[in-house]
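Q: Two folds, back to back.
A: First:
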Amino acid sequence: MQRVYGDTEVSLSGTARLQLSSVRRTKRALQDGGSFFDVRDHTFLTKALSLQVTSDGRHRQLSSVSNLNLNYSQNTYLDMKRLHSFALLLFLPAFSLIASTYDTSDAAAPAEHLVLTASASSERNLSHGPYLQEVTTDGATIVYETLTNAFSWIEIRKPGSTTVTKYYGSHYGLLDANTTHFAIRATSLEPGTTYQYRIATKQIDSFQPYKVTFASSTPTYTNWFTFDTVDPNKTTHSLFITSDMHNRPKVLERLLRGLDFATCDHIIYAGDMEDYMQTSSEEPYSAFIDKSVELFASRKPFQIVRGNHETRGDMARNFSYYFPRVSGQIYAACRWGDLEMIFLDCGEDKADTNSEYSGLVDFFAYRTQEAEWLKQVIASEDFKTAKYRIVVSHYAAPARGASGWAGYQDFEDKMLPLLKNAGIDLMVAGHTHPKTCVEVPVNDAGKGNTYPVIIQGYYSATRIDISADGKIKVKVLGTDGTTQLEKTYQHQS
């Protein structure tokens, strides 16, 4: 059997059962006996493909593939659980991959039998995740992707307890099913409490109007994961913040480890964690979610602020699909003990009429809406009674290096008048890629900001440690391991 998808020719032989799962949904790719191959609106392999190839003990990076042949072999195997935005599951004793035409990141490998492996979730029947989002005093959202179309739910318990509560994704009376993407909210949890969760999945073989056929009558379970709900009485806080990683997960890991992320209460990404959100080219899993899951995100949530690069690409309108909030908004405010956090959504940095946006953006009106929301937050009891108040956004306010950037300037014009009278202790931003972090002083250029601003990202990350005595310690670490800034601010009551 042979099919051509874009500039990729795929040949398959042998009797196999192959399933392919995109980031949005699963398409049955190969039926027993090789009767058809269907990827619909997705290409099977793309030039953006990046996988490790092993041949004669050498490792190479496979950057693009032209002609592939999958042939059954008793002596070699192919493990392809994750192929960029696709997840493949092969149910045969062994496969070999013969790449007759391909590019590598170094010298070309000989055209011979190669063993190809790609990263994947170690959990059963998951291609990505699970990762925690919006953990509060009484709830948590768990997001993950399954390898195949499925019906899935989460189970929550306290450690050592035999009492398990099931939670389902549900929309308009229908439980989420026949999909690969799940974002399920656990509610009615107790504050400052340790919980365990696991994921149950039943693979769906056929979804007909009056009959759904499951692959098995019993679900597949992951291991148990542990997380803590927010403690409303907490008076000390440790935050890790970075931005502008632009699809550099190894750099992200270096910064996380350099600032001892394991001892941080909260991990925050302040935008531009990827270059754009584009199907089959670059997506948030490969850019930073998979690395976050590997290091912490199944046990500790990350917060994400959208950068201007996350507004670009054919997947940009699905941002909340990956990072859901109960409010349905991208901007947010949350209370962690006596710390109030504000996460601002900046939008694009140029005018809405800029040709890059093809007439498809409306950020000036959006920022006006966000400013009205911010007024309400500042007037809320949570905000007023907080001891500390920290703002994280992709752009700084006051703006630095925003001359000629109409969108960036619009953000300052609408947010700065509200923030400078709100008793903010510190703002952390990114966007401008300073080689050494920039500390914007109080009343910068006479703009009246009453709080300092740290602009970091791309070359650095920030750790903030807040002690009960009102000290806010800031350390900015460069990607080269040097300390770019170390300073203590005193909270002003």
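A: Second:
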Amino acid sequence: MVDRPARFQLIVALVLGLVLVVIPLYLWRRPRVQLASATTTESSNTAAVPTTIPSIAAPSVEGGMEPKVALSDVKIVACQDSGAKKIPPEQCDRVVELEKLFTKAISESAACIPKDAGGGTIIYVLDMNFKKKFFSIHTPKEGRTFKNAALVGGCQIGVKAKLRTLSDDPFVHQHHHYKLSVTAVYPGSIKP
């Protein structure tokens, strides 16, 4: 017959073993957003650029609908011509048409955050290279309140899909390469 301390240790070992099996199975089988297209279409240059929020527009209410995403002003993070010399952001020209398309793509992709995810912020960085006719969208971890990488990745894919013809549009610009930043504030309470 097994004595009480040995029985207690056996029960604890069984529960611990069960927990060690169940938790990885749950994490492996839980539903998640597919990020396959993000990993195959993103460039290898994924340097995150932290930004500050200059101002945020108030969310609009259309026809009794809930407020949509509020966007900060577009901030020019960097611009560059051929070569290694970077130009200070305050000396960069504004590419107004590009800025309008970028903010429109973010607004139209606002449904990427479900209501049950709560509210929060995502910083979108558009890296546009006119010389190579290439662009990418980044969502740096700095400054965002959403912790779920799959959720943020889904939003990143949605914005990039709205801009898929961006490199074909003729924009008036002075430099070859631009980095623009917009902070999107999604309505709802921020979840820890």
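Q: And?
A: The radius of gyration is 23 Å.
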